Amino acid sequence: MDLTCPYRRDTGLLPVDPCMDYLALRDAEPVRREDDLGVWVVTGAAEVTALLRSPALSAAWPQHGRTRLHDERDGADGAPRTAGIVRRWFMFQDEPRHQLLRGLITPLFATRRLAALQAFVEETVDHLLADVTDEVDVMAGLAVPLAGRVVCRLLGVGEEVAPRLAGWALDIAALLVADYLPEVVERGTGALAEIEEVVAAALKTPGVPEGTVLEVLSRAHEAGRIEYEDIAATASLLVFAGFDTTSTFIGKAVRALLHTGQWSTATTRDIAATVEELLRFDTSVQQVARVAVAPVEAAGQRIEPGDLVLLMLGVANRDPRVHRDPDVLDPGRRTGRHLTFGYGTHYCLGSGLARIEAGAALGGLARRWSHVEPAGPPVLRPHHGVTVLEHLRLRVRR
Ligand code: HEM
């Protein structure tokens, strides 16, 4: 049995995750300037943590962070990049606006609310797996519809919207990193416009469900606390932040347990601990970005105002200075300090929900079938910045 990371060697069976190329760099150069792109790449766990805490780095990178590719296209004129409602996302805001918007929906992620959502998640898993006989595609048959329906439920829009989330999330993710390509801008702004339409239609319908994002935000708008555009902006942020991240993590978790031959043992023990180690071992959000607004030093390097900084969470999660035998998937270990959900003020708002969804998906499969094995190689979707699993077929037996 091989417990180590499937991406460290090219077996021909599994696509090598490009972010893993940085594993080797981390020990030699935890903070490195990539001159080709004109960005800093930070791979050490201590450096990533310190920089995510530093006031010298701003979260407003989509507006101001430029790579060499942007400069080549339109000259370094310093004009803000990303247009439209993405600029309103609280994920890309600094204080105090970040806290104003985040604070409005934070109560929806409180323990009591999550308990109610957990029941919905478990029912959805049961429903999705009810008709499976001997084969299931973990992505198309479980993780994707589950993550989509949960986001719709949270927002307060009908389940019929869920199948549209995959396309939207893909086009928005591309817009964030490759907006120097006109076709990417066209598709990304198209996706955002569709979300605005769906939100506008939901708000016009009487009775947006109570305790949902749209209801809470429309009340805040009526009270004059936020602008109307912030409602659809926050909805599109949740589509982007809550959907592919979670569905792909579920697929990667199943893949990692099967690859290392630990499916049966890991799913029959404490699922929450297993999920925690899986989150550390292979995250779906390999990196987050920031733009420097003041000079800052890290690992002897000086980052200057205006520089774009990529913080490699997945690579930092394999830092031997923090985790013993970091390339070994060990569901028995107590993994307390991973960076999978980020660090500091922008720490993932949906981390509790993601853990619930992953636990319910793994538990749902394991409870039904004692034998689970791959029925073909995983299929990855080309994606900017995030590795997205499209298909992961399994053969199952009781
Ligand atoms: C395994 C699944 C997930 C992973 C790996 C993940 C990862 C992350 C990371 C790394 C950040 C920090 C971004 C930064 O610092 O720039 C973040 C932020 C965020 N996540 Fe998640 N996430 C997941 C699931 C979810 C879910 C299910 C939701 C909600 C439905 C969600 C909502 C958010 C929001 C709203 C933010 C922005 C927080 C802020 O800026 O204050 N995430 N997530």
Structural overview:
This protein has 16 helices and 12 strands. By secondary structure, it is an alpha+beta fold. It has one domain: Orthogonal Bundle (Cytochrome p450). The longest helix has 23 residues, at 182-204. The two termini are 23 Å apart. It binds protoporphyrin IX containing FE. Protoporphyrin IX containing FE (HEM) binds at residues 59, 90-91, 102, 151, 154, 237-238, 241-242, 245-246, 249, 283-285, 288, 313, 340-342, 346, 348-350, 353-354.
Strand content: 5-15%
- Give the integer mean of the pLDDT values: 88
The CATH superfamily is identified as Cytochrome P450
Distance between the termini: 23 Å
Low-pLDDT residue intervals, each spanning 5 or more residues = 9-16
Name of the CATH class: Mainly Alpha
**Helix/strand structural class:** alpha+beta
Oligomeric state = single chain
Tell me the number of structural domains.
1
The CATH architecture term is: Orthogonal Bundle
Produce a short descriptive summary.
The protein has 16 helices and 12 strands.
How do the helices and strands line up, and which of them pair or pack?
Elements: H1 23-28, E1 31-34, E2 39-42, H2 45-53, E3 57-58, H3 61-64, H4 68-74, H5 97-105, H6 111-129, E4 135-137, H7 138-155, H8 165-177, H9 182-204, H10 213-222, H11 229-242, H12 244-259, H13 263-268, H14 271-281, E5 287-292, E6 296-298, E7 301-303, E8 308-312, H15 313-316, H16 351-368, E9 371-374, E10 379-381, E11 388-391, E12 393-397
Parallel strand pairs: 2-8
Antiparallel strand pairs: 1-2, 3-5, 4-12, 5-8, 6-7, 9-12, 10-11
The structure holds protoporphyrin IX containing FE.
Protoporphyrin IX containing FE is lined by residues 59, 90-91, 102, 151, 154, 237-238, 241-242, 245-246, 249, 283-285, 288, 313, 340-342, 346, 348-350, 353-354.
